[in-house]
Amino acid sequence: MASSFEKYQKRRLISSYFSVVLSVFLVLFLLGILGLFVINSKKISNDFKEEIPMSVYFKDNANDSVLKAFGMMLKESAFVKTDTFVSKEMAASKHKDIIGEDFMQFLGFNPLQNSYDINLKADFVQADSIKTIEQKFKENKFISDIVYDKHLVDLVNDNIKKITFWILVITGFLALIAVLLINSSMRLSIYSNRFIIKTMQMVGATKSFIRKPFIMRSIKLGVVGALLAIVAIIGVLFYIDANFPKLGILDDQLMIGAVLLGVLVLGVLISWFSTFFATQKFLNLRTDDLY
Q: Global pTM?
């Protein structure tokens, strides 16, 4: 009979430990992923901004020296990330591939213009900055037209601001839920030992002496949950890097290390904090209140 009871208690204890580790793992994994997303959100938004092209078209009287001089100016400009010269012949070839027919056979000449496809640096993909750059380009009398998606620029900037705000709100909310969830799991674990706590207190054990083994056990469980979360986060990072290499999500290893260390520290701190106050509550209860 005693053996069955001991097995029952052991299963109950293991179940309690498992629920604590699972709670810590899920919460810290989610917070870690959100932390990495917040850190990389600027990089992701910058990559998206820098994909918005600006095309500068030249008049037919612009000779090779004019085009080369403009190309040199672009390479020396602080606002240009990449630039590609597209000759009228290259443009015609691209149109032919897209349309599937050689339109120049019908027209008898090439109506397209020489151009530069420019990708600006993210900091300059703003309505006012692009306007200034556009005006600077228009000072060149050989430029006939400048084309870019003005509506898309405004839309991207507005949406990035909204997304950043809501990410911060959601992260703060989840951080609060994390503390409450882990605290609840720790309290349930301590609750099953409330009679042991009161017995130790009645025979003269100090509060710090009673708290110590519970805190140490909770910290160990918190570390296990945090390590599992770290392994899962690393797995997600490698998966994203393998499927979306252009994001370069593994490039900033220092920040990734800081987030992973933060996950581990947070697991220890929340476990310690929750266990300390949970044991303190039962230490301050009267014997009749334990029931």
A: 0.62
